[in-house]
Amino acid sequence: MLAVIQDPSRNSHWMLRFCARSALVLLAAACVGLAGCARMSDNRAHPVRTASAEGPSPFGGVPFVKIPDSAKAMGAFLRAEAAINNGDRKEALAALEEAVKYDPNNAKLRVMLATMYVRDGRLKDALEQVDRAITLDPKSVRALLLGAGINSALGKDQAAEQQYNSILRLDPRNQEAHLYLGTLYAKQGKYAKAEAVFKKLIKLNPNSFLGYYYAARVMVVAKNYKAAESYYAKALDLNPQSELVLLDLAVLREIEGKPKEAIEYYKKVLQVNPNNQLVRKRLAELYVGQKNFDKALRQLRHLEAMETDPADTRTKIGLVYFERGDFDRAATEFNLVLAAQPKNFRVRYYLGTVYTELNENDKAIEEFNKIPE
After folding, report:
1. Which is it for the CA torsion 314, 315, 318, 323, positive or negative?
2. What is the pLDDT of residues 5-40, one digit of tens each?
3. Alpha-carbon distance 177 to 199, whole Å?
4. How far apart are CA 236 and CA 243, in angstroms?
5. How many Å apart are CA 215 and CA 229, to the nearest integer?
6. Element (H, E) at 84
7. Collapsing DSSP states into helix, strand and coil, what is residue 57?
8. Which of 85, 218, 220, 342 lies most in the core, judged by the most C-beta atoms within 10 Å?
């Protein structure tokens, strides 16, 4: 090695002689190969007839191996997963349809395709896929759950009930099936059955917030308010900040004719979610009912600041000022609304009435005259 490094000229002469001999050998081999090809072709005018119809092959004319459908299905499935991860639902759906085409007996693929159809609102197409998946795998809890949900959405409650019960025979501890079966019974007005199912769910999982919550809602509809109160209390113990439970308790207090207690629950809702506009509206209405105009105005001003088009809220503010006897401020609010909505004849009537209270009869008549008969 040292000798080669010390005398590069000798090394290069050796390499040149080697390359020359190699080139001659390769040239001779190529000539032999070409002669052989010429002899193998019986029809020199059409030498392409000796080529494979499958295209060029590294194995001397042996056709390419055909890709099996199972591999095509796997490829399509992987494309679908990638599209789902990238948020491309259109590509995901197309890829899943292709996967099912190449692997029609794969129940899991059909359930995935059905799920995509549900997200696109294609419930009948989804149900067709689920039914075929269940035929392929009658014990697929996932397929049965999805099928029951679709049937319920399509108004096929009996089929949905049968599928939920099938799940519970396969998996008696399945909490989702208990929850959905209970809500299905509630939808049908079978409140005793619904409560019984929710009780089973709660027995399976004493920390089931949804079990307590939906049991409470069923009892409200059944007008068993005492039982509803008990279930709501359990749900609130599990999640003290639940906006849903606090809102339901506020409504329950209103149903029971307890507006002061309802107000306290609505205030708790706003502690959890200060941007709940419906609650602020309802609180303002309850405060007006109690003649507590300042608190009503405070809620409405909060609401006005949150809205992009506060015309309706400003109208309410004007009416609160009118109720309070503050006619000048009422007129200011109504004029603000009319500046943006000159054809709001209901507000124009309110403004004419305010001017009447202010003894500005000319202005009142002017406003009333703008209202079409």
Report:
1. negative
2. 344 444 444 333 434 344 333 333 433 343 344 333
3. 13
4. 10
5. 10
6. helix 69-85
7. coil
8. 218
E strands along the chain, which residues? Answer: none
Output the six-digit token pair for 232: 């709501």
Phi, psi values for residue 343, rounded to 5° = -95, 15
Residue bearing tokens 């909505």: 341
Closest by CA position to 312, among listed 324, 300, 302, 323: 300
Q: Is 122 left (phi over 0), alpha (psi -120 to 50) or beta?
A: beta
Give the closest residue to 244 by CA, choosing from 272, 219, 225, 285.
Answer: 272
Taken in order 71, 76, 82, 85, the sign of the CA dihedral is: negative
Q: Which amino acid is at 147?
A: G
pTM: 0.74
Encoded tokens for 165: 């019960």
How far is it, in rounded angstroms, from Cα 360 to Cα 138?
80
Which tokens go with 342?
Answer: 């000159």
Q: Which residue has the tokens 């998996």?
A: 171
Overall residue count recorded for the chain in this entry: 373
- The residue with tokens 């290069």 is 12
> Where does residue 87 fall: left (phi above 0), alpha (psi -120 to 50 degrees), or beta otherwise?
left
Name the class of domain 309-373: mainly alpha
CB 356 within 8 A of CB 334: no
Tokens of 361: 């009869």
